[in-house]
Amino acid sequence: MLLKLAALGAIGYAGYRYFTRESSASHAAFADGQASGSHTDVRDAGPEAMRDPAQREWTGTDQAIDESFPASDPPGNY
């Protein structure tokens, strides 16, 4: 019984991994043509580097915040 349960769990896990796999070049935040695959996987700053277009006009504050990521300190120029 335990062996059957383990086999069923392994098949379920393999099915889950198969259906949720992503290609290594596909990153949600990166625009087409953006370099990815580095050890940090941080995209370039600015709306042109985003996969989805900005929902509103991009401001200087938005740019400063985007440029500060992934730093822990907020930008000091706003």
Count of DSSP H/I helices: 2
Taking all residues together, what is the mean pLDDT?
A: 77
Which percent range fits the helix content?
A: 25-40%
The tally of strands reads 0
Radius of gyration: 20 Å
Separation, N- and C-terminal Cα atoms: 64 Å
Low-confidence regions: none
Biggest sheet record? none
Rough shape? Answer: elongated
Structural class: mainly alpha
Strand % is under 5%
Order of helices and strands: HH
SSE diagram, text form:
Blueprint: H1 2-19, H2 60-68
Any key phrases for this structure?
about 80 residues; mainly alpha; elongated
Please sum up the structure shown.
This protein is mainly alpha-helical. It has two helices and no strands.
